[in-house]
């Protein structure tokens, strides 16, 4: 991994620059130091020498080979072109470097290619509509096609600028070489300034506002000790190593044209003390801040104490801009901010992107409130960025994104994120994880974060609660919830969404005030309570877990929209308790391989449970009030309330009622220890054999809309033919009224509001309804 130590110090660079300039002064001068020995390769050009001035008049796209191209102090070279969009390519075929110590002017674009090196000396002035200077090779074909593909060149020298280089509004300056240094002034208002250091450089779509620069490895070194200014424009420095010790200024000077700065290194980037990198609202304006992206892709981004990076809004108004600080490692001791200074405007957005992030108390050098709005994450350990919750609480950004290549760990509670309206945690790799450790809650029940919370990773392991008044979204891969079994792990949000949510052992509460979506819910263990409106696309309780699952409790509006597979271990000792509205829109399969008498779905008073697309192998459904509905497209299996019979005796059970009988279809599974007779009047009679010791059978009835309901009837052995008391199986802690003994009636009535029939069972004073829709 590269590091900040691998970058030459500013003193070393100044020494080298002075040596380069001194060498330039010693290069032998021709009798006339203006460019000499021209040969027109393509296009047309006329040359006029007048004392110390050389004037070249060329047609657009002209290519000229020169024996030498230098301008001495006090000399002038001018290219007169058709317009600002016209260009002339000047290629040096001689052995001398180019030393521009005088004045270079053009109303068009000037390209200078010299593999021997290029120096723009102190006191020189370059004023063109556009300038491209490179010691790498640019082919005539690519120039003619408008492509800026700079190829490797074994003898390529450096580019050093100590001069004043400027363009009019909308111009450009591109300096391309294995090593590029600037100690002068480069200005291009609303234009583009690029310093690209490498042995192969491709400037993709230079005419596009979204210029992309590709520097191939090995990258060179780019140093700025001077001033680079492109107000409302674009500035880019691309290299293997970058040392920024001067001023890089793309402040927004024109409303709606926000400045952009990109520093991108294959290795490390050093932001020296006293350096200023700014894309803020310019001066006393009401302009928004722009964008800054600093990426040390293969090394460390070292923002030294005393360095400043800013995307602030204007002093009279304007929103903060966007800032991205990335690298394998981040050392952030300087100032970086995206503040809004006027009321009614919002702070900017911050992205921190190292390899690892650890949010923990006591691991940074400054845990005091930060009036500048920084996160001083200056405790650096290898590739891990440590951030204190105190510093998060004082950060002046409206959106905070923490993106780590391999992992994010939260070890301490996050009580506040300052002015931020969102906290986004991301681990984009296929193997990384986000771990929220025990006792590291995000927000509290009494003081939730007034923000949106998002987590995205291949694995999210949540062992502490999240409380937010905004939305909470968990996704990317597997989302695993773990609880300490004494205090429920709670996710409380305005809206909640998750993909592949796995409920572990313990107690869990998910509350969604205005809606939520869970793509896949796996429930092997634990006890989960839903509050609010939540949609579950697929519900799975896989079989084979050694720990038996607990209870799903619905207190709101819970909808399962996809295929729902409920495993045997969930059903054994487990239940789904509904106190609100519960809808299964997709088919429901309960994968029981044996009868498990203590497994059930519970429906309570004033509740509504709907199955719209069939279910099979269902375990007993216990109802105490409420409404249960079945759609027309599927076939449904019910476990009816148990009936008691004595050996040799009979019992009559009604399945017709207030508005006429429900049509009997057929017996699907005959009783083994007795006989079944359909009486044709909405009742059937079961007669037990003399050796009767309990029985069960299955029959089907029709719904008016064309659906069917399959009822599995249990017949218990008893002392008399009167129905006996069959108490429901209820999870611990849920109190329901006792069920009296008259539980065997199953009667029907037609639903006047839908094309359906209802099967009602009167359990004492509690009216229970099965509906076939």
UniProtKB/TrEMBL annotation:
Residues 1-33 form the signal peptide. Keywords: Signal. SUPFAM superfamilies: Pectin lyase-like. Transmembrane segments: none annotated. SMART domains: Haemagg_act (SM00912). The keyword Signal applies. The keyword Chloroplast does not apply. Residues 31-142 form the Filamentous haemagglutinin FhaB/tRNA nuclease CdiA-like TPS domain. This is Filamentous hemagglutinin N-terminal domain-containing protein. It comes from Acidithiobacillus sulfuriphilus. The lineage of its organism: Bacteria, Pseudomonadati, Pseudomonadota, Acidithiobacillia, Acidithiobacillales.
